[in-house]
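Chapter review: from sequence to fold.
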Amino acid sequence: MILVDSSDWYALADNRERRHGDALRLFARVTEGEFGRILATNYVLDVTYTLLRMRLGIGPVRALRDLLTSSSNLQMVRVSERDFDHAVELMLAHADTRWSLTDCTSFVLMRELEIGRAFTFDHNFSEAGFQVLPARNP
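The token string follows.
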């Protein structure tokens, strides 16, 4: 299983995004099942839909929603109250980082579900000890 973060959902949807090609290539591997099921969280999708709406309009939001609802390889996870509380505690415990609450909810769920990889361009995931795909360019 692999968690897909907002940075990659966004890069997939915006063909002007610098990492769009990287996102397309890796997402092709993800959708072929190379990494198992795709995990998305309601918090990650909140960030993604908001960015798409504000930067590109409602069309890309609709297109991503349609893609996600038609996918048989996607597992949608909603952040529970307990997960939220753990994410806040994680963020507070790592005051030396700039981890967002949404990232912390992803970290909590990834640990809970024993997911070691994330499809993201966000370096915070590697800081938190997860394997990041695609690998970061220096």
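Two observations follow directly from the output. The two ends are 26 Å apart (CA to CA). The chain has seven helices and five strands.
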